[in-house]
Amino acid sequence: MAKWVYMFTEGNATMRNLLGGKGANLAEMTNLGLPVPQGFTVTTEACTQYYEDGRQINDEIMGQIMEAIDKMEGITGKKFGDKENPLLVSVRSGARASMPGMMDTILNLGLNEEVVETLSKASGNPRWAWDCYRRFIQMFSDVVMEVGKKYFEELIDKMKADRGVKQDVELTAEDLKELANQFKAEYKEKIGADFPSDPKEQLMEAVKAVFRSWDNPRANVYRRDNDIPYSWGTAVNVQMMAFGNMGDDCGTGVAFTRDPATGENGLFGEFLTNAQGEDVVAGVRTPMHISEMEEKFPEAFVQFKQVCETLEKHYRDMQDMEFTVEHGKLYMLQTRNGKRTAKAALKIACDLVDEGMRTEEEAVAMIDPRNLDSLLHPQFDAAALKAATPMAKALGASPGAACGKIVFTADDAVEWAARGEKVVLVRLETSPEDITGMKSAQGILTVRGGMTSHAAVVARGMGTCCVSGCGDITMDEANKKFTLAGKEYHEGDCISLDGSTGNIYDGIIPTVDATIAGEFGRIMGWADKYRTMKVRTNADTPADAKKARELGAEGIGLCRTEHMFFEGNRIDAFREMICSETVEEREAALAKILPEQQGDFEKLYEALEGNPVTIRFLDPPLHEFVPTEEEDIKKLADAQGKTVEQIKAIIDGLHEFNPMMGHRGCRLAVTYPEIAKMQTSAVIRAAINVKKAHPDWNVKPEIMIPLVGDIKELKYVKKFVVETADAEIAAAGSDLEYEVGTMIEIPRAALTADDIAKEADFFCFGTNDLTQMTYGFSRDDAGKFLDAYYDAKIFENDPFAKLDQTGVGKLMNMAIELGKPVNPNLHVGICGEHGGDPSSVEFCNKIGLDYVSCSPFRVPIARLAAAQAAI
Ligand code: PEP
Ligand code: MG
């Protein structure tokens, strides 16, 4: 019989896959002898089984849960539904990888009309007992039965208004009792049945709800963003309740062993007296700093500090903990490696090495490469910032600078961003449903909540700027307006946020590119030491190339030459080239372009200082360049000595039904060899000049022919290239060497790579096109239907962002295995978008690529991912 349920005493930290992070760590803390309210974990495999069984908990799992309850009753001396000493539990999700706020939690489970009376009498604290009960009804109704939270919140607001009080804590036991009754009536009205009173029935429903929450939309979005497979499932933790809301000698808190924003070593966190955990995390009340706990609960605080030390030493990483103090006694509810900003991640990793807790390799492995993005994101322009005065200040919850138009709902954020607006999402507080809206926004501003509130944690994870807890705002969400610093702001008004300082500014403050410093260099140095794969960049301009070099690129893996034709008035000559009807006409136009291209290439070689540069010959369909405006058509006609009608006829002739599979790539060179010849001359002349100026640099052009599917295409084009190049080199009396290679971006090229390798000095996988043609998905249109694919669980990720290792990857592997034996000197890289995606980089390392090439800002990410793949 499979084992589906583990008591905390039966597990340990290595069982994360089976018990989820929370369950494994609760077991580990139990083993360490820390004060953990006892309970059990229903495994992630039980979750997977629940889905396999058609969303049912089977008898075997159910039986094991019931046994575990018996054991728990034995350990705690309390009993479910007991009139003397009732057991109350929390039911919480816990996946392998932490997914803060994405899934569901239910507290105070086990309460019913009789139990609440018992608790009320036994504790001598009826207010607390009724507060627990009304919270439970509220959470159970919302999470398990999906009765919207808002109905209950309205009832609370009404009760507070009736009683003339502002805070929940000012409501009396009688008020709360009445609220509980109102809640149950609401439940009955919405569900059509009485609120369940049997604790075991409540528990089974709650476990199902947690399993079900694995598949809720926000969890699906979060998983997609964080590369967490759907197949993992979530565990469920059932734990005896410890009460932080039993009075003023009780409380609850969330704390980090180091500052999650800066990485500074020292306790950092928040605490609320007379409250339950959800109050801190949900950001409903703004909590006090953890240091104030020392005054209120000196003994528990000393003990807590010891626990922090024990846990950090044990896990050798910064911990994020949840705890409760019940009548002055400390209970640990959770520990995990804390989420942190990129800046903090780098500092913590370096400090842990300096403190002797981690090796360099481990430090490199600790950093999530995607997190570096936030270091590379815009900051405010310093001069503009100096001139600006903040109108308010709140918590700098997630760093970076943001400016944009105010929107008040997540949906509006998505909609406005889709039409190209930059938006700042302003909310009373964010809830997990807001995740897509948060993603669409440049920044997030919340009225309530602390550094550990949902908005703060999620924004930090996304690397999106967030300022939280701005209590100075008087919010009117219903009418989409708020007042701050004496000014009324409406939807569409502009605002700027500094997520590092928490400053809020009126209007737009321009942003500038990020500069990276501090521990970044140290970690990158270690990454470079341990990685074996090179990292190049996709750069078309000298400025991009320079930026990429600063970020550590070791060469250019792809220069898309077509991007050079839009500069200045070059497009005119290019259009003349396209609309030529004879070779002579075309050559005349190309002659105008040649010096421009040569100049560009010289600058690229200069910027790369002898590092390799791969120049890809013209690739896109010609119709992308033709004029559409009447005025431009006339200008072209005049320049060509043709009539407007003639030009229009040529343009019509260029129309293609399926341009991505049309007249592009090496097909252009086959039809117009003079284009490839011109580009060869430009590359070779540029290289000769730069080599002359810098004899010590290793200038060796790599000419790359795109979209080859047949060896004969490559042979045909290569012939012109080699003839032209050799003639240029001979004429200059130079000894320049060069290579001619090809992109592998058509499945047939991969399938016949043994042939192609005979002619190619190198392969570079163009995985954008290779994905497009392997799946038969248009890379420009797939976005329209991918959402349906995610919903239907056909895809978990966009295959244009994260490499499909099973299919496209198999073709890549095949191409390497076929190509290398034929040409042992063949070097192989990737320059599709996947070259900057960490999991794809890992795959590239595994199949033996020499380098990955990605956009400049993703170079550090690729360097780190390559090191992690090698470690
Ligand atoms: C590719 O197809 O992956 C590639 C790099 O080329 P492009 O995106 O220019 O088609
Ligand atoms: Mg391509």
Hetero groups bound? phosphoenolpyruvate, magnesium ion
Which bin fits the share of residues in helices? Answer: 40-55%
- Specify the CATH architecture of the largest domain: Alpha-Beta Barrel
- End-to-end Cα distance: 38 Å
The total count of strands amounts to 31
How many structural domains? 4
- Low-confidence sequence ranges: none
Q: What composes the largest sheet? A: 8 strands, mixed
Instruction: Give the oligomer, counting copies of the same chain as homo and different chains as hetero.
Output: single chain
The order of strands across the largest sheet is 12-22-21-14-15-16-17-13
Arithmetic mean pLDDT: 92
Stated plainly, the CATH topology of the largest domain is called: TIM Barrel
Helix segment tally: 34
- Structural class category: alpha/beta
Query: What CATH first level of the largest domain would be assigned?
Result: Alpha Beta
Beta-sheet strand percentage? 15-25%
The shape, in one word, is elongated
**The CATH fourth-level homologous superfamily of the largest domain:** Phosphoenolpyruvate-binding domains
What Rg, in angstroms, do the CA atoms define? 32 Å
Tags for this model:
single chain, 871 residues, alpha/beta, Dna Ligase, domain 1, D-amino Acid Aminotransferase, Chain A, domain 1, Glucose Oxidase, domain 1, 4 domains, 8-stranded parallel β-barrel, 34 helices, 46% helix, elongated, binds phosphoenolpyruvate, binds magnesium ion, pyruvate, PEP-util_enz_mobile_dom
How would you describe what is shown here?
The protein has 871 residues and is α/β, with parallel strands linked by helices. The protein has four domains: 5-243, ATP-grasp fold, A domain (Dna Ligase, domain 1, 2-Layer Sandwich), CATH 3.30.1490.20; 244-340, ATP-grasp fold, B domain (D-amino Acid Aminotransferase, Chain A, domain 1, 2-Layer Sandwich); 378-512, 3-Layer(bba) Sandwich (Glucose Oxidase, domain 1), CATH 3.50.30.10; 531-621 and 656-870, Alpha-Beta Barrel (TIM Barrel), CATH 3.20.20.60. It has an eight-stranded mixed beta sheet with strand order 12-22-21-14-15-16-17-13. The protein has an eight-stranded parallel β-barrel with strand order 24-25-26-27-28-29-30-31, surrounded by seven helices. A five-stranded antiparallel beta sheet has the order 1-2-5-3-4. The relative contact order is 0.07. The model has no long low-confidence stretch (mean pLDDT 92). Bound molecules: phosphoenolpyruvate (PEP) and magnesium ion (MG). Its cofactor is Mg(2+). It catalyses: pyruvate + phosphate + ATP = phosphoenolpyruvate + AMP + diphosphate + H(+). Its EC number is 2.7.9.1. This is Pyruvate, phosphate dikinase.
